[in-house]
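Q: Please design a sequence for this.
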């Protein structure tokens, strides 16, 4: 059977490094960088020549756009949740609509932060998120991190993208891979400090 080790999960043979755009990166327990520890990243753009860009989708900030930007407090965008998107470019928040396109497909649309609400089709309102910052990788960097088992690459799943409990999706995804990963995912952060 298939080995239950971190390295034996989704092997890199499953996803060649050609183009990972639109896929999810799941941080493995090997990844201890505080910016990315226990994160799920939606990879928006991947290129071996240009590098990669994505957004952390499991770190809601517990705030809405209206609470942070008083000008939109009365508008339709006031209830849009804010997410920590990554350590790069926090001064330029990004407004994204993220929803499942059915099956393993993904429907993502970027809206300009200053856009008139009338520019946003009504069916997107429920899927809007404002990301403060993003994740960025230089050319070849993400590929090296995947080869070092820092990330698991998976297709987007509807229940992940539309989860009502985004803080829990890392644990749910990792726990669903195999029994060994479920144990690792459920360990408390201070487990090794005992």
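A: Design:
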């Amino acid at each position: 059977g298939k080995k239950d080790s971190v390295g034996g999960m989704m092997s890199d043979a499953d996803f060649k490094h050609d183009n990972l755009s639109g896929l999810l990166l799941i941080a493995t327990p090997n990844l201890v960088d505080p910016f990315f520890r226990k994160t799920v990243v939606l990879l928006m753009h991947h290129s071996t020549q240009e590098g990669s860009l994505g957004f952390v989708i499991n770190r809601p900030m517990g705030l809405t756009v209206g609470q942070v930007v008083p000008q939109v407090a009365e508008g339709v965008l006031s209830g849009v949740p804010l997410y920590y998107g990554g350590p790069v470019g926090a001064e330029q928040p990004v407004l994204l609509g993220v929803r499942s396109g059915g099956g393993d497909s993904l429907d993502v649309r970027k809206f300009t932060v200053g856009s008139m609400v009338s520019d946003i089709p009504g069916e997107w309102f429920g899927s809007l998120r404002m990301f403060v910052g993003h994740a960025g990788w230089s050319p070849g960097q993400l590929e090296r991190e995947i080869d070092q088992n820092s990330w698991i690459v998976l297709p987007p799943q509807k229940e992940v993208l539309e989860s009502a409990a985004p803080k829990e999706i890392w644990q749910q995804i990792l726990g669903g891979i195999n029994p060994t990963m479920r144990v690792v995912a459920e360990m408390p952060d201070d487990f090794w400090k005992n």
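Q: Thanks. Anything notable?
A: Residues 99 and 107 are 5 Å apart (CA to CA). The chain has five helices and ten strands.
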